[in-house]
Amino acid sequence: xxxxxxxxxxxxxxxxxxxxxxxxxxxxxxxxxxxxxxxxxxxxxxxxxxxxxxxxxxxxxxxxxxxxxxxxxxxxxxxxxxxxxxxxxxxxxxxxxxxxxxxxxxxxxxxxxxxxxxxxxxxxxxxxxxxxxxxxxxxxxxxxxxxxxxxxxxxxxxxxxxxxxxxxxxxxxxxxxxxxxxxx
Length: 184
Fold this sequence. Notes:
By secondary structure, this protein is mostly helical. The protein has one domain (about 5-180). It contains eleven helices and no strands. The protein has helices spanning about 5-10, 10-20, 25-45, 50-60, 65-70, 80-90, 95-105, 110-130, 140-150, 155-165, 175-180.
C-alpha cells in the first residue's frame, strides 16, 4: 500500500491541488520528500525502548482509521491531528524540516506543513491498520511497514531515502538538517 500511489490513483492529488492552489506536480514532489522525512523520524524515534513504547500507544489510537475514506476524500483527514503528529515525530526540528523541503521544492514552508499535515494521519492510520495483522513490536517491524507505505526499497521513496541518507544510518533527518545548517 504505497501512499503516494493511493493518493494519485484516487484523484486526491487533484483535490489537494484545487484546495490549496498548488500544482499536482509540486504536491507530488513535496510528498516524495516529506514521506521519507516522516518515516525517517519515526524510525529514529522508535529506536529507543521509550520511543517505541510511546509510538505503539500512538499507533493504537489510529488502528481503526478509515484510511481508504481519507484517501478518497482528503477533507476527511484531521489536519489538526496531523500537525500534532508532526510535532511529536519531528519535535523541535519541525520548522527546519519544512523549510528545507520548501527550499528544495520551491513551495512555501506553510504549504509544506499543509501537505505534511495531510500525510501524517494517513501514515499513522495505515500503520495502525497494519498493526492489527502485522507484528510491529520492534523498530525493525515498524521500519518494514514504513517501507511498504513508501513504495518499498525499489520505489521512488526508496530511491529518495537512499539519496538523502548520506551517512547511511537509516535516518534522513540528521542528514537534511546538516545540509540545511551548512547552507546546501
